[in-house]
Each structure stands twice: as C-alpha cells, then as structure tokens.
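re: the backbone from monday

yeah here it is again, tokenized this time
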C-alpha cells in the first residue's frame, strides 16, 4: 500500500538521505503521520513523499481531523520513500 506524507521543502534532502524519523516528545516516541492520498498530504506540506508501507507497522487513526488516517509506528528508511 502506498501512503503519503507532506513536508516542507527544507526537509527533503535530509529525509531522502536518512529517512523519516519519529521524534521524541516528553520521553515518548511519536508516530509518522501519513495520508491515503497525495491531495490530503499536500495540505500538510509543499512536498509530498510517497511511502511504500509494505512491512511497516501501521495503525489506523481516526479523530475529528480526517486528514491524518494512518500512523507509521517506526522509522522509515530512505529506500521506502520517493517524491
């Protein structure tokens, strides 16, 4: 399944080199938020990355904001990302 992640242009070089990394907040790991469509991901950043989610730990996420739909529960290596 393909997932999409919106980000700022300034982040592209480091993401393509190092992948997407979860950040730490208050000692807890956060998730990588993704969307099911490019159109939705474009609302969150000027660059939309396509992620090959095969083999990644995913969790559906629903709340008042239907844009964020799937959480990736681990870091994503660069070989799973294209733009």
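seq for it, each position gets an aa:
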């Amino acid at each position: 399944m393909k997932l999409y992640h919106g980000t700022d242009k300034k982040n592209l070089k480091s993401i393509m080199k190092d992948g997407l990394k979860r950040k730490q907040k208050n000692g807890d790991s956060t998730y990588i938020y993704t969307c099911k469509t490019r159109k939705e991901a474009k609302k969150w950043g000027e660059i939309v990355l396509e992620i090959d989610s095969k083999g990644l730990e995913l969790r559906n996420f629903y709340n008042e904001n239907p844009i964020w739909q799937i959480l990736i529960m681990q870091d994503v290596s660069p070989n799973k990302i294209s733009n």
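Residues 12-18 form the longest helix (7 residues). The chain has a mean pLDDT of 88.
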